[in-house]
């Protein structure tokens, strides 16, 4: 039996829509496939003209369960494609590709939580084919028809009609991972002073001329993760939780899912533009990964790192030669296993990048000293980089972090912040682009730990990360202005999803501490007029030049903050001075997957029981639309409310990446540059050893 | 001793900034007055050129507490005004008004919660004067200096330099009370169908071309209420919780606080335009009230209703002759006491309105039949109107509501919805404006129970109200298009504050119900990929023509929803079919002001302990910036992030209400129309009997 996974569309079978819907939601057979014939990309998908993608066809034959058939999928299925209104052709003719080989597999899933508890799996046999690296050039509506077992599934696809005229030379895309409007409001409150209701300064984001909202939901679930949402932002295609740059299919192989070309790949292939990738996460994390990776499992960290430098080599795919800069944490996927890392093919990826022409730096001093002319890899910590609060206020926490990028258990005490990394990225990209006929650049800069700290309910650290992002935006705008590139650069700031966070008043921590009764402690909370003004500003000694951060992180009156959902935990609404919070823990004697209030966390507080499954030791993502701030050439189309995929189409429009006819040399220039260099052509078959997906 | 109230600025005295800040937050002496000399409007306030306002000066002499003085306020204080850079003049000369009489009073407050628990009040003696109905015409910066006790307080005021050219003939302002981006996202999810990540329809709000965010904080606390926030939206002046159209002073009199002219008053006085007021709340509630009321206590409901028809008559003030339409609930302020109402001066306000030329209707049938040519009062329920969900789905709940507008305890079974009221308001305003030289109109239409239902954690009813608002917006746009007025009308949709609401997954209610262990019940929650698709759409029988509402409010898989803050309550994530929820109650034997889980609510659920003071039986407002959607003439300035007061300035700009010189007839045409008709000139002294402020 194949991999066990958990999908089923809301509409299980055409003939039994209503009853199936009612019983398939927590798990889905394959979210994008309500019938038994599956086309990926599925119905209702948009494409950039000329964007490369793969097609996966699957015919499902459930063996048991509510959809049971004879268990034999039709292996003689056919697939035709055509513009709506034109005659359809077999896909091989339409795309000019060879007929792919038939693949078969099986997988199993659970119809609901009762089946899961009882381990009553439903098994599905599958017949499948995949067409690799095709494209649609002519704008308009297309129709793909999968015929099987005397029935058929139709997918309508739309190629958007976008200008090919480039408006922006450069794009600087900032992503505040997990950042919502609510969090921006809270960060403003603790870092910018008010007098009589007037802010004396505001966030850099607040000054952007154009504001939009994007809807973050997945293709098959209304809550997304960062892999899936990054895929939407970078490719114009929504996908499934944990998927990077692919539509998730039902096969066990996490590297054979149908791919879609990303904004980085398109920008490089079509314009020869330069790409930079910056994140405060371990660099194999989803948001940076989705620029070059194509896998249904974001947990394939080693392969992700390989894709940064080599692109995709297991199938015919687009050109890619590596970013000009790659800055972040995550040495654990660079140090060879002999030094404690876990790398793709057990290689030393510092060496792999050096062999590919990269200089390598491992701390801020080296970063600042590095040449602006050379490609640069900067890996500054073993895993996720240390938060702004610990690097700048509670600096003792840097000691004993054992987080150095040599994976030797030393402390990474000289880490750059997001601002250091982003400004250096701009310098290098600008220098190298200028030396390359002013080809222009695309930089993605991610404040990853807004999300990571919100997950662990560490409000202070999360808001510190958000303020560091805002400070980076401000500094980047000033720096681009100095370089004379501001007017050539489209700057977009957005998020990939939210957390259900908000501020609802203040807390008199002195009063809270003075009482033992949990109900008395709650009376320390001051809503409405009792919230008063922010005491984080101008009430302490910390100063940061022209950057706006709180001057006092532990005033008597703190913010009362909370989430729509949380694990069991305790709240005392005080900054966690000894390092990031651990709200919930497993307790000896209980099942490993069950979590309770951490007895060591927020000891002076009162207990808040959780609203999440007890297997969650941290918070989860939420539904809310997230903001998009835009300034620069092409900004005007970023206003209003739209889908996350539109961020991709808007950026592609600004860069003029739409191509309504194939490049003349197309068949000779892809997939060859690095394909044989390291002797591997299929990730999974050789190396299917990466762990389960992370969130 | 005077009234006991609870303010003190973040900066208690100029000489002791840091130490005072640390100890004064929950309560404030007077939030807008950090020193002992108070100018209202205080420092940093903006004005529309020609906007009428009052000035209140106070000199404080604390008798005891951390700021103790000799307790004798300087009664010989002086006040000068001038443009910055010009020579200052005494206020009497500058504004051409008589020197007002000196007033004195005292008040007391608590320095913190410890003082409150111990009843250790701080007493302040006050000397004060008030200048009534002045205006600043010339754009620029002004400086007001209050000199007292050998020291002084300075207020810098700014008159904005705005065009006097009118762009919009009409303004339609929709307010979703308490509505956030998070709630819009959730409402979209339950009312609009998705296929493979593409919405098949979207909200009317989603289609607006311009999006902004407004910061909702108060002048003296970071969390606002609806009175204060409506004041900011309508006057361009932020104020204090519970205040309507005034800056709150420290006197006991809730009708002597310094006023600011509202958008409705300005529009009528300057252009002769027609005003309409529509709300699903009792009509004396804060959001409608703030258009014509001026009091520091929103709880003065009777006086609020009087102000709708008569405007302000206790002091010299602006012209006002009543709105063309006033539609909503709240008969309790119209029925005379003999019929169970509680009205201003014990009058029958149906009669008062009839005497002022209004027709009166009391149900939807009468509303639809009413002439479009006459001024119309429509009061449809005793108090707040019934929710969309109860009027359209769980209609049994209309029976026994005893909510009829005759205050006789009958059921109001023929209530109009927000759409009915708003479309009728448009028809009447359009007819009357057309007959009056096309003077144009301003309509405020409020979906009040988004807020009211969110307060009681009734997610379903709150989202129903939000969807009704959206449906009203859609229908209004279509109707204006039919009338040929769409291109003449600026439509603005916004909120006054938020609640910390979000959706974090789905809930398998069947699984939740099947378990008794609260921790097992929590495992019914499905985050991320387990959230699946919305089952509220196309899974039931309810249909609403071209309006988008859920077709099934009780699917097996519901939304997992929550707040950042809540009272003790229980969650089962199911619609409350028997009427609005009551999450927390007082329990016999405990103090009256202490609330616990309601044993009768959500019985199948699990308990979630509260994070609010135990005196709260419902949720509270939150900090988040709220969205602003704009379309029509003047829309272009509504993009980006700004203060709530900018909504006023943007609307005033679209209507061209700025006036840089006084009207020639000014001294002869204000405050006279209704001032003596009922023989009262000072609300409070005659009638200080209204209860404490509501929230």
UniProtKB/TrEMBL annotation, chains A, B:
Name under which the protein is recorded: Uncharacterized protein
Organism name: Vermiconidia calcicola
Lineage: Eukaryota, Fungi, Dikarya, Ascomycota, Pezizomycotina
């Amino acid at each position: 039996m194949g991999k066990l996974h958990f999908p089923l569309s809301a509409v299980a079978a055409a003939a039994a829509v209503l009853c199936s819907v009612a019983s398939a939601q927590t798990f889905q057979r394959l979210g994008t496939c309500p019938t038994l014939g599956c086309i990926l990309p599925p119905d209702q998908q948009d494409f950039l003209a000329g964007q490369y993608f793969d097609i996966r066809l699957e015919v499902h034959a459930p063996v048991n369960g509510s959809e049971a058939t004879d268990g034999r999928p039709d292996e003689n299925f056919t697939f035709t494609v055509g513009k709506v209104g034109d005659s359809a052709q077999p896909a091989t003719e339409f795309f000019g590709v060879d007929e792919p080989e038939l693949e078969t597999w099986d997988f199993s899933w659970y119809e609901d939580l009762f089946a899961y508890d009882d381990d009553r799996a439903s098994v599905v046999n599958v017949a499948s084919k995949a067409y690799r690296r095709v494209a649609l050039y002519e704008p308009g509506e297309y129709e793909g028809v999968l015929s099987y077992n005397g029935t058929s599934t139709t997918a309508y696809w739309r190629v958007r009609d976008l200008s090919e005229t480039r408006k922006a030379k450069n794009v600087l895309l900032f992503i505040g991972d997990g950042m919502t409007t609510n969090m921006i409001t809270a960060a403003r409150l603790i870092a910018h002073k008010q007098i009589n209701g007037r802010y004396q300064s505001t966030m850099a984001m607040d000054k952007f001329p154009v504001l939009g909202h994007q809807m973050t939901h997945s293709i098959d679930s209304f809550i997304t993760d960062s892999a899936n949402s990054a895929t939407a932002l970078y490719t114009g295609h929504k996908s499934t939780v944990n998927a990077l740059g692919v539509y998730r299919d039902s096969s066990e192989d996490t590297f054979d899912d149908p791919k879609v070309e990303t904004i980085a790949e398109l920008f490089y292939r079509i314009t020869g533009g330069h790409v930079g990738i910056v994140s405060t996460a371990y660099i194999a994390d989803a948001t940076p990964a989705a620029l070059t990776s194509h896998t249904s499992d974001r947990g394939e960290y080693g392969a992700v790192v390989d894709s940064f430098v080599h692109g995709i080599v297991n199938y015919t795919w687009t050109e890619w030669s590596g970013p000009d800069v790659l800055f972040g944490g995550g040495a654990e996927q660079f140090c060879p296993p002999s030094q404690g890392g876990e790398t793709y093919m057990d290689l030393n990826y510092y060496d792999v990048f050096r062999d590919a022409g990269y200089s390598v730096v491992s701390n801020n001093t080296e970063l600042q000293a590095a040449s602006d002319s050379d490609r640069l890899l900067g890996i500054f910590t073993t895993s996720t980089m240390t938060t702004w609060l610990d690097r700048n206020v509670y600096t003792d926490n840097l000691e004993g972090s054992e987080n150095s990028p040599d994976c030797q258990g030393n402390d990474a005490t000289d880490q750059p912040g997001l601002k250091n990394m982003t400004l250096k990225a701009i310098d290098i990209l600008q220098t190298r682009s200028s030396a390359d006929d002013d080809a222009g650049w695309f930089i993605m800069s991610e404040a990853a730990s807004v999300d990571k700290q919100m997950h662990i309910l560490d409000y202070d650290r999360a808001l510190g990360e958000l303020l560091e992002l805002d400070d980076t935006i401000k500094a980047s705008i000033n720096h681009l202005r100095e370089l004379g590139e501001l007017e050539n650069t489209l700057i977009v700031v957005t998020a990939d999803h939210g957390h259900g966070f908000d501020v609802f008043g203040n807390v008199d921590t002195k009063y809270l501490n003075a009482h033992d009764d949990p109900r008395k402690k709650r009376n320390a909370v001051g809503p409405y007029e009792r919230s008063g003004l922010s005491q984080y500003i101008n009430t302490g000694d910390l100063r940061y030049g022209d950057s706006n951060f709180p001057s006092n992180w532990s005033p008597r009156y703190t913010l009362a903050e909370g989430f729509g959902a949380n694990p069991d935990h305790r709240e005392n609404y005080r900054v966690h001075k000894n390092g990031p919070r651990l709200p919930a823990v497993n307790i000896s004697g209980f099942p490993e997957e069950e979590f309770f209030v951490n007895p060591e966390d927020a000891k002076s507080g009162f207990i808040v029981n959780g609203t999440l499954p007890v297997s969650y030791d941290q918070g989860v993502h939420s539904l809310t639309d997230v903001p998009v701030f835009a300034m620069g050439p092409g900004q005007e189309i970023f206003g209003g409310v739209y889908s996350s995929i539109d961020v991709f189409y808007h950026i592609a429009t600004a860069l003029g990446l739409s191509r309504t006819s194939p490049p003349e040399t197309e068949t000779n220039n892809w997939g060859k540059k690095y394909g044989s260099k390291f002797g591997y052509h299929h990730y999974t078959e050789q190396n299917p050893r990466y762990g389960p997906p992370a969130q």
